Amino acid sequence: SKTYVGYNFSIGAKYTVTKNHIFRINGSTGFRIPHLSELLSNGVHHGSFRYEVGDAGLKTEKAAQLDFSYEYAGEHISHVVNPFVNVLQNYIYLQPQDSMVNSLQVFHYRQSNQNVWQTGADLGLHWHPHFAHILHVESTISYLTMMSQNSNALSLIPQPRWNNSIIT
Predict the structure, then answer these.
(1) DSSP conformational letter for 60
(2) Rounded to an integer, what distance in angstroms lies between the CA atom of residue 127 and that of residue 76?
(3) Do residues 86 and 120 make contact, with C-beta atoms less than 8 angstroms apart?
(4) What is the pTM of this model?
(5) Which of 58, 95, 65, 87 is nearest to 149 (CA)?
(6) pLDDT digits over 148-163, tens only?
(7) Which of 33, 34, 84, 152 would be a feasible disulfide site paired with 58, CB 3.0-4.6 Å?
């Protein structure tokens, strides 16, 4: 039996330079309690083909985020640039081990005792040409990095993602 406590807040501001140019800034905090699988697992995770070992001593993750955004919204084209930074305390992650069980690599759930910095950006573009108003071309790019306070890279961080779509 354990009790987990966390509090959140959020504050933001928006500044409209003109009807087409908008700036935003947001600050927020968050928390995440450990999932039961992170606390109690000790076996094969069939969805990822790895052997996972939990840690019943994990604490609540806490985070603080600051993000900015600039948006241009024109008649036929719009774009958004949104860089962000998060600072996480007690970050929970899977650490690969140099051992195998039933031909599967062993991973232990660990918790960082240093702050983890998560930085990245989301970029978006939406274009619908004047000559074809029913055509919409959308493209988004997301990039993320995570480093511990001593500059060690962390495992299983998502790769950059680029999504494109054409809608009629």
Answers:
(1) P
(2) 6
(3) no
(4) 0.83
(5) 87
(6) 877 676 778 889 999 9
(7) 34
